[in-house]
Structure formats: structure tokens, C-alpha cells
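Hi Y.,

Following your request, here is the sequence exactly as I used it, all 285 residues.
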Amino acid sequence: MHRIFVIIGLLLTLLLPMSAQAINDECRAKVDTALAKEQRIYRTVLFGRKEAKDAPIGEVRYDKNGRAFYKSGPHTWTHAGEDGEIYYISPMMDNEAELDSVPVDQGGADLSPAALPRSGILDVKRTMTSELIPYLTQAFRAFTCRVDMVCYRIEESTKKHSGSGSVELPNRVGGCIRVDSEEWNSIPECQFAGKAGGSQDTADSVQYCQKVGDSLVQRENEILKMIVEYDAAYRSLLQFAGVFDEFLQEFRWTITGSIRKAASIIGSLGRIPCFVSSCEEYPPR
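Below is the corresponding structure, written out as C-alpha cells. Let me know if you'd prefer a different format.
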């Protein structure tokens, strides 16, 4: 009998951490999903978004349910998941594409089908990169706010009782716009209050979000630096090419006119009479 209790105790010791880890993995997955969406929205602000029919084959987009679709044909988008393949045509992809989690009237990006194609900051032409710096800086600041809001949402969700469902959260982050939207409510998978081992899961989820969020912000910061350097070099090259082309167009007529005038003068030299001995025919007849 004693051996039976020992075996049961060992099984409980092994199974309970596994179940807690499984619950925590679900919360981590929600963290990854939320941060990845904010990253995609931020990239859309920088580079814009074309209509689905104009997107190149192989491009990946997400629908409102968070499912990834890649463009497999001129007018076909395919999602390959565990539940089988799902197909959208381009107009359906535009209608079902993911929207910004912040409403448009609160400063979010208008990604609705009516707003497509949406130009990005770097799509602005006839301007220097230095003139785009304020807008790029503001976009990056908004992105850091979104990351902080996601981690704040995770932290507040861990304080809610498990099994109570999603509840409204006052999403207030210092220095960032206040957001009142259902998409920023608590996450049931991250609600650990009143649950065995909830303190450990809470600490793990909050630290995980902060670690991943800081890493994401740092990486996007380095990518933005590279983008600005490339954009500045590209626009400078275009400006130089334009000025040089205009110079050649103006200089071409000057050179061409001079050559034509020189040729006409040389042709008329044969009509000048010769009064010196060097002009006589040679060899003599």
C-alpha cells in the first residue's frame, strides 16, 4: 500500500507542473500573437499596404482571425492549417484582412478595404529623408507604446480570476493614448488569480512579455536605422541623377551647337583664296 501512495505522489508531482506549463504556454502564445500583430501594423505604417490584387505572389497577410495567408496565384490566397486549406480571392482577402486593434478615431491605422491602397511614410516622393524623420520617430514611439500596452494588458489579465472570461480593462499606459476597445480586454488564457501556482505563472508571463517586447523594440530600432540609411542614400542618388540629367540636357545643346558651328566654319574654309606659296599644289605638275 505504501508503494502505491508513493507512485501516486510521484505521478502528481510530474503531472501538475506539466499542466501548469501547458497553461503558461497558452498565455505565452497569446503574448506572441499580440506582439506580432502590433509589429505588422507598425510595418504597414512604414511601408504601406497595397490592394490584395496588386500584391506580389508569395506575400503573407493575416485575416481577422489571426490566420496567415500567402498569395499562391494572381488572385488566390491560401491558408494551410491543421484544419485544412482555406482559399480567399483578392477581394475577400481585402475584406477579411486584419485591422488595427486601436480604432481609427483614436489614432489607429485605417486598414479597412475602403482605405486601400494605403501609402506608407517611406512612399512619400519628392522629399528628403530628413523631412520624414519626425513621422518615422512618431511611428516608432507609437509602436513602443503598443508593446507597453500589450504587456500592461498581460499583467492586468493575470490579476483576474480564472474562468471568469474576458473582462474590460482600463488600458492606461503613461505617455500613451488611452484605448477603449474590446480587443484590449483581458486574456482568459492569462488569468491566474485564484489558481494553484498562479503566482509563478503570473511572474513568468509578465517577465516573458517584457523580455520579448524589449527585444522586439530593440530589433525594430536597429532595422529602422538601417532603413533610414538606405532611404537617405537612395533619395540622394535619385537627386544627384536628376540634377546630372538636367545638366546633361542643358549642356548637350551647347556642345552640339558648338560642334555644328565648327563644322560649318571648317567647310567654308575651302572658299578662302590662297595668297601664300604654301597653298600651291603639291607635288608640282
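The helical segments are 2-47, 90-96, 129-157, 198-268.

Thanks again,
Q.
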